[in-house]
Every structure is written in structure tokens, then in C-alpha cells.
# Entry
Amino acid sequence: LQKTIPPPAQLQFAIDQSGTGKEATVLQLLSLAKDLPAVECSNCGNVECLDGQGVVGIGQFTVGLKLRVNKSCANWDGGQFAGIVFTVNSVDKDNNTVHVRGGISSPIVWQNIPTFCYGCS
# Structure
């Protein structure tokens, strides 16, 4: 329940069930949901999703991570490529670079600006 209905919408969910004969079931589900652990983003791994924020530090890059080019970074002509979602194929920790589709290799930082942002949504 917590994965499909975020806490702010749970009250509306309960209200919508009013008068349907499902009220007791809804209250029981909501009481169980409050004890569930917070749900992490399936891409960035954080409870509060980092979508659109710069990926800082080579340790944050993992194979399979979805990225977008940082519009503020001149390395990729950010505006031209910003809408494209890239997936990390490999990480080169020795050279602080990541490899994305098509065998493209890119530094994780260019002129002190993160090259990529999380592309979670």
C-alpha cells in the first residue's frame, strides 16, 4: 500500500472508500502501512528521490543507473542532450569516468560541475 499510495494520498484513499462497506479493511490496511519501511527509489536508492540532482562522486555511479546530462555542464552541450536518458554500462574509478550506451565514455565532472544528473523519472 505504501508503494502505491504515498502518505498524503492515503487520507483521500480512505475518504473515497467511505460508504462502500470497505471502511474496516481500509483502516486495517492503513494501520499496517504505517509500520512499513520507507520505499527507496529504484534508481538512485534514496527514500527521497534525487531525480534531476547532480550525481557527485564516483561511488554514486553504479552499473544500470539511469542518468541525464546536466544542462549546466558544457561537456556534452547539456541543452542538446539533456532530455536523453543514459544508462551506466561501466564505471572506471581510476579515471573518474563512466561508460554509457554506445561505448561513450564521459568524465563525471567537467570544470567542477557534475556531468550527469539522476534520471529517475
